[in-house]
Amino acid sequence: MELTVLGSGTLIAQKDRSCAGYVLREGNRYALLDCGPGCLLRLNQAGVEVTDISLVLISHFHWDHVAELPAVLNSLWLQREKATGRLSLAGPSGFSAWLERVMADDRDWLPDLDLRIHELKKGPMELGTLSIRAGRSFHTDNSLSFRLENTEGTVLFYSGDMDYQESLLPLAAEADLALVECSWPQVRRGEEHLDPLQVSRFAAAANVRTLLLTHFYQEVDADTVIEKVKQGFPGTVLLAEDLQTYPISARKS
Q1: Per the confidence metrics, is the pTM higher than 0.70?
Q2: Which tens digit of pLDDT belongs to each residue from 10-66?
Q3: Which helix (H) or strand (E) holds 29?
Q4: All domains of the chain, ordered by start, with CATH?
């Protein structure tokens, strides 16, 4: 299993950070985690064909996480003869209605894609060798965090955008890689996002193996942020960089 960062930034543009988007490769399958502006270009730069994607997982409906989904679907339609299988779209409660609204003026071609649309609730979703569980992240009324686990027990936790919530600890527990937002390099409360001290507390409580920080609203000094996080978290801490790939392997018992 490996994760490629397409975008580690937000809608406040930075020259080296695109909006939220990540590609998880599990065997010969690819899953796109969120789909903010710039994802199509980044997919191309990462050497991933949109026709190879079998799952798009959406954490919530803010534009920096979902704005490019219509373009990704249209690109897939334009290249549908190359598609390797059906595409599953999965997201929070209300996802189907949201997609209907967004595509209302340009959806005549959508039936050609034969999409599977899932609204994730309590039960796990199975896709090939991946099991996907979701939990409320409390960034919005229906935003989600995800736990993706393969049959070998390798675990990726993806926070999406989240407020600090102990209810999400079981979802992140013992994750081999935890991809966690760290929107503010300084302590900043009441914004439904995390700062380094909150990330540190959460990662330590979940006993994750490696922590990959992402979703930066401004330029960050890597050493400073990592030092703050490591005050309470003893594991490996990395700052996500666009177009970097991070291998994920199960911890040895």
Answers
A1: yes
A2: 998 888 999 999 999 998 899 999 999 999 999 999 999 999 999 999 999 999 999
A3: strand 29-35
A4: 2-247 (3.60.15.10)
